[in-house]
Q: What sequence folds into this?
């Protein structure tokens, strides 16, 4: 499934790039389609209409369709279509093998520590001040979203669109093509790719901390009740044996702690339906059913009665 996601997002980016180069007017992910049958980025549509003080039917239709899509599939756009995660993967190849292993080991230990803590916690989450503070933490993306809207009002044009990494990626394709095909030389040939690289370098957690479109989807995704991760407690290794596992959380690209949602940087409202957690679960305890309610519930794991957590909680599953 992981390779399929790469193929979908990479293939779509390649197709739209070919459309740009060939002059087919198919647009980019910021606005794509053909002639009258085209859609706009919902956030771009909102900010453009605010800037123009005008309600554009195509913008409204794009917004309504995107809201309907998020209501059913959550942030699936981020996991299957957006080229930003693909760019992060590509940038990861430039890290040394030792560096990648260190980062994986650090993430693994962090998730296991959380699992050990929760397995030995024994306190209801609703009664725990620590968990209440975690749930009430500020989502920085919402601050960026508010800032992007306010800057649009203040300056009279959608300021964020200038620095949107999706737009910058397609702009880079166009500028490079014009450079080699027509000899068009301008400062933008350097400035646009440089800005893209700068964002990828300094804002490595763009999706989880800065993206206003992700914040927009998060707000709508809170009402979503379909295709969310659900754990079968009768199969989950932590529930059945009391041993820390959390492999589902180790592989989540959306910074969600699937087994212990209150400890993730983001919540299940940000699930991208990538199915990485489902495929990583060694017990086959995770699924993304059509009707899933709120999905995984917060709180300490309920361990089977015949297991002593004090004996097993420190030993990771599979070791």
A:
């Amino acid at each position: 499934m992981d390779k399929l996601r790469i193929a979908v997002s990479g293939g779509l980016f390649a197709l739209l790039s070919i459309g740009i180069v060939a002059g087919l007017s198919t647009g980019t992910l910021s606005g794509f389609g053909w002639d009258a049958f085209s859609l706009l980025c919902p956030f771009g549509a909102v900010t453009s209409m605010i800037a123009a003080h005008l309600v554009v039917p195509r913008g409204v239709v794009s917004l309504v369709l995107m809201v309907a899509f998020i209501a059913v599939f959550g942030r699936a756009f981020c996991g299957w279509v957006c080229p930003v995660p693909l760019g992060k993967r590509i940038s990861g190849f430039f890290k040394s093998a030792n560096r990648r292993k260190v980062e994986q080991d650090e993430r693994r230990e962090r998730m296991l520590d959380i699992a050990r803590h929760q397995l030995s916690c024994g306190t209801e989450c609703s009664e725990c001040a620590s968990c209440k503070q975690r749930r009430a933490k500020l989502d920085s993306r919402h601050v960026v979203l508010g800032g992007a809207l306010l800057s649009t009002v203040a300056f009279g044009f959608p300021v964020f669109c200038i620095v949107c990494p999706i737009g910058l990626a397609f702009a880079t394709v166009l500028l490079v093509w014009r450079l080699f095909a027509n000899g068009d030389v301008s400062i933008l040939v350097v400035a646009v790719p440089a800005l893209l690289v700068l964002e990828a370098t300094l804002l490595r957690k763009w999706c989880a901390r800065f993206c206003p479109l992700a914040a927009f989807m998060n707000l709508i995704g809170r009402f979503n009740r379909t295709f969310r991760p659900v754990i079968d407690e009768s199969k989950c290794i932590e529930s059945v044996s009391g041993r820390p596992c959390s492999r589902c959380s180790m592989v989540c690209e959306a910074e969600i702690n699937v087994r212990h949602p209150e400890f993730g940087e983001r919540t299940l409202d940000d699930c991208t339906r990538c199915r990485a957690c489902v495929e990583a679960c060694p017990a086959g305890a995770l699924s993304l059913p059509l009707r899933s309610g709120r999905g995984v519930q917060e709180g300490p794991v309920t361990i089977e009665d015949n297991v002593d957590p004090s004996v097993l909680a420190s030993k990771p599953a599979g070791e």
